[in-house]
Fold these 4 entries.
Entry 1:
Amino acid sequence: MYKRYLKNQIKKSLNEGLVVIIYGARQVGKTTLVKDIMTDYKTPLYVNADEITERTRLQNKDAKELKGYFGDADIIVVDESQRIENIGLTAKIIYDTYPEVKILLTGSSSIELASKIKEPLTGRSREYILYPLSVDEIAFTNQNKINAINRALIYGSYPGIWNMSFSRAKETLRLLATNYIYRDAFALQTIYDDTVMYNLLQLLAFQLGNEVSYNEIANTLQISRDTAMRYIDLLEKARIIYRLRQYRRNERSLIGKLRKIYFYDLGIRNGLIDNFNELQIRNDKGALWENFCLNERQKAQQRTQKYTKQFYWRNRSKQEIDLIEESSGSIKAYEFKFSANKTVKLPKSFEKLYPNTKLQVINAENFIPLLQKEYPLKSM
């Protein structure tokens, strides 16, 4: 079992008397994490809402009936809680009537769960995203972290995948990429076309690291632009992909602009295009490295709770900066180059617009020390 940095933040929120909701895709380690948290309590109750008999015990019950079910439990953990009708109202009843009881909910279908808890738990809850494993969670020594990086670029960072043989990992990722997305990612009432959604994901996987045009996607898939935007929005809410916006000081100028799209897990991305070749023979190594660095920075920001707004920058001459991070009005620029031999300078047009901005090039050799410097490791 891998220790997760998110554990301490979750425990802190529970101790503050908040209902904790953990979002994350299947296989990302939610069940393992919550069961680890349960060991810190005397009388925990675990409810697997995938089981019909389990979820009916929490559906549409009053305070007395709920007490009769959970008894003297000091924490109630409901796994895959989006499957329980009115789970938000149930959690509110327990929260209001039995404040001494801790409540922890998880959900793979973040769209469905969010719709069920938004109103009942307003002001009573704290939400967290559980990402795939970070390099710091996988390995403790810097040498092992370097080895972990090379594997993560090909097979991703799902906990269950990490200890598999390469052949078994490939087969599992192919199945996850083609099956789990449609089964678990969306609310049951979400209407979409399986074939179009899969073709869209493949198209996005091939365009990794490039600007994405909604019009171009619509034309390629023979769907409307609105449908393309809706499907991409669904995939983002389901924590399968995420978008990076162009950087402009004038926020209104961003409306309708192009976006870059990345995957939360590179194993899923590589499974979609069925490419698990080694790095030295891949022509997408740069895009994989860019996606990996962005993912790890998001995990590090969550770990240290030092958040920034993230963008990319590109001008009409197609000069580009991979990442712009903005915090408290100041900005930093980053370029991701796998090879340490590549030198990069800020485009003069960018320097003119944003003087005194420093550019940091992140490569495979300096990645670990730079990340540890910006986001110092904390004990788990």
Entry 2:
Amino acid sequence: MKRRDLVRKLEAAGFVFERHGGSHDIYKRGAEEEKVPRHRELNEALAKAILRKWDLL
């Protein structure tokens, strides 16, 4: 999955970019936090796990 597709889905669910980490970007929704790796193409299993974690799949 492309990174920007995952980010769009997170943002549609209310997550907002907070800051850049070492090799990840951090998105927050209230007290909830998700770290997204900074790669153009993400491992499909990782992307699905992140979406499943927030019931977005």
Entry 3:
Amino acid sequence: MSNKFVGGQAVIEGVMMRSPIRVSTAVRKQNGEIVVKNDDYISLTKRYKLLGWPVIRGIVSLIEMLFIGIKSLNYSADVAMEDVEKKEAEKKGENPEKNKKSQGLLMGITMVLAFGLGILIFFFFPLFVSTILRLKKDALAFNFVAGIIRVTMFLLYIWAISLWSEFKRVFQYHGAEHKSVYAYEAGEDLTLENVKKYSTKHPRCGTSFILVVVIFAILFYSLSDIIYFLLTGTPPTLLKRVLIHFILLPLVAGGSYELLKLSGKKRESKISKLLIAPGLWLQKITTKEPSDSQLEVAIVALENAVAKEKRDLRVEI
């Protein structure tokens, strides 16, 4: 099995792959052509020793994943809609570049609003419900109920979007990403025949990370609430609890990252299998069997992501 870390995500009509030194996004255009965007990128955790410390590296990695993921998604959207936007702009007599800038600004505002709404729904609402149920004096029960509500809402959200036919292709590209990564980790040549035989469910998927975060948050936030009670003599109010939990969220993400990283190194241990299992179950929804055409896109993305690394290794030898 390869000891090189690679990972990625599905984007619109394509796949983004990331190796330790490069990010590559491959997208299938409407005319069938596969276009690729390559960006050399070394993680901040590798460039700065302090940022590579345990827990801190998890926080940094999460921010990097969000930044790279959004950037890749925007690129795939530009490619997928390029021909359509050009035709529409020409019909209306508009400048395509000016129209593109306006849409970019609108997308930025939409993403900020979506992030704010996500915080409100997935962060504040579960705490609000736990408060209504009068559980604030029992830290473990309070955070357990809040965690169950978060998991339930997340699962309902995933299930709901899976019913949308347009998302099926995204989930197929997600499956293509996992299959190609599996083949690479096994040290096989990245051919259709080799890649097709692997599973669409991968233990290092981001869905596993999200569920580990929720589980770890129950324990971590329970501890923080207990410490608050010991220091003040009273349980935190709803607003104070929201503020404290939000401030501690990076530590929860960093700790969860370490747990998932450890489970990835020791996949055969019982604890690792326990941590990985919920994410694999969820991938029954978030990944679908891809077509050969979609696998080709994932393979192109992965080959580009590791190409520079292979060249550098040949030079060193």
Entry 4:
Amino acid sequence: MADPNQPTDRSVSRRDFARLLSIGGASALLTDRAFADGSTLDAFGFTSAPLPPTPQAPDEKFWESVRARFLVPKDVGFLNAANLCPVSLPSLEAHERNMRRYEASPSADARSELMKGREEARTLLAAALRVTPEEIVIVRNTTEGNNFVSSGLQLGAGDEVIVWADNHPSNLAAWSTKASRFGFTVVTVPVPQGHPGTAGYVDLFAKAITPRTRVLAISHISSNSGDLLPAAELCAMARQRGVMSLVDGAQAFGVLDLDLGAMQPDFYTGSMHKWPCGPKEKGLLYVNKAVHERIHPTIVGLYAGAVGISRRFEAEGQRDDASIAAVSEALKFQGGIGRAEIEKRSRALATYFVTELGKLDGVRMWTSTDATQRAAIVIFQPGSLDPRRLVTALAQNDKIVVTGRANAQDRPGLRLSPHFYNTMADAERTVAAIKRYMASGV
């Protein structure tokens, strides 16, 4: 009989725990054994159990319980949601279950079940955005969604597309590449010095529109400054002038409580691997039903979606159906907490950084100090410190993960992007560490 005091393949001993922490943290063991059973998760302070109902006024204890549903080791302050988010445990475990079920029985019936999961994900995406499932295409990421638009519209000589200089390359360089092939013109609107306010942004883009303008392509939130653009007002302005609108929502979807039904963009894109905390290589393309006939598929194949525009835009051949089906659990996890609460929490953490870092001598804040003009991205210059060295010091010495902007031609420094899985303890020790390095150097 096995000794009950000895660890089995499905449990973690205190000796294992201490040994692994000493050689590099809990993540080494979690990689191999996190899903063996609930006791393994519990040993590290994680859980995949359903969250309790969200209190009317969520306190820090509640957000710590949210944190326990992510596998990032507790001593790591992960402040890089604008680049890549950890997957919530409900979605991670659903993905694993889906893969195991299919690989154990790779049959047509098993695949049919996963296809049902894809349609559930579509329904939940539509609900999260307050639109209809017929308007949702499940793509690989924001980049693919943006390129489906720039490749799928009928544009040629005499047509203009207006882009913003702060757009992601998939919504900036992609337009120029296709303009050189198809003959249309790209007009680039420059980045203003500081957030100009709602009227200022609307005026900036309105001045660029001419009778030849066919598309206005913008970012909802800039990953280079943290500026929150007045997307609804810009879409309305474009619509009044007969111009289609594409909004890149990579830095908004999953952190803002979006209502595309009210915003009425013609196209909106987003990624699951960022703020929604879902599976990698999954994203969305929203296509307003009013323009379904004006856009054409780039890829034509098999296994299309079941409803609406997805019947034409998801026939991309074999895909990772297990991962697509796991999108549902990521959306349910956020939906159960409440998207308005997630936005409020993430904004509050960003406000803490803006306020506390702004008190440090030498800090130059590139992100607006007006909370209505930003969301959860904070970019600042840490005095004369080399951003590259500071990023490395924070990661190696303090286990704090941020993004550096050392090579940026403008707005150099650090980018902090907190999310609802971060605790106030993460925020406080990050500010303390930056304050220490600004005093002592790196």
